[in-house]
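Lab notebook, bench 4. The sequencing result for the construct came back, and we need a structural model before the next group meeting so we can plan mutations. Quick request posted to the team channel:

Model the 3D structure of this chain.
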Amino acid sequence: MDRIEFFESNGARIYGTLTLPNRSEKSPACLFIGGSFPQTRDGNLDNLQTDWFPTPLPERNLFRDEAKILERLGIATFRYDKRGCGQSEGDFNTTSLFDLVSDARMAWQWLRGLPEIDAERIGVLGQSEGAVIALMLAAQDPDICFYIWQGGIYNNLEQIVKWQAEAFWKGDRAKSDNFKQNVPLMYWIYKQIDDLIASAKRGENFLRLGDEDWSKNLYLQDLKEHFDNPPSAFVDKVKCPVLILHGEMDHNTPPKEALLMQEALLKAGNKNVTAHIFPGLDHSFRRLGESNEDFVTAMKRPLDPVMPEALTNWLSFLVNS
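Done. Here's the predicted structure in token form:
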């Protein structure tokens, strides 16, 4: 059963969907935390944000699909529109990493207070940037029951965006021209990568991306807070069970990040760590037709079944506990 709900965070109402399984007793639950850029509760880029995405992008519905998977297991979920996206109030154009962490923490506290939810059995699931935010929550709150990483990072974001840009410019000219026309945000981030990083490190608030055909003032505080707070700094504080899910063909975050996260967690004494790196799957757990296929094309495909199988098998401990 789906129910539209909201919680309040820093003066804004943040709206989302609470999915409750059909059970008489209180349910275990999972909070979903979305990835980079404007995103809606279902795990889609917010196409209403036309200054970010002038060309509508496909709906992948990753979180909507995962909510259904967990519902069948008897686990409740809450997924929400990021600040300033979808139905949620606020201005995403001036939202930083710490703002997003604060919103996620308020969502966690709100979820714990619901009468239908077992407050002792709530975990967090983060996709991409959301995996970083979920990691920070798991490091700060020992009451978090489990942590699921999906396509996250271990190293500093600066290294990751440089890796993305280098890989992008190694591609063929037709691909880069297509991105300039259809996903200009990513094209200009990679085109102006050095200025972007330098401006963020200097503490500047905005950088103008683009040209006469498309341009945007990109808020840099989010980047600076990422640079100053790499995920590696939080790993040793995470003591709950951890599931790491990553696509081997992920062009957004390299799969070696998953291996580094697993190694660091184990080294820090967390013995309950499971990792799956899926051959042939991309950042959204879609199966690529070829290794250099772009993420926009792959988003049109359904969620590959190997990922839900791994997620379901691992979460069985929560249902049976």
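The first helix runs from residue 62 to 73.
Will bring this to the meeting.
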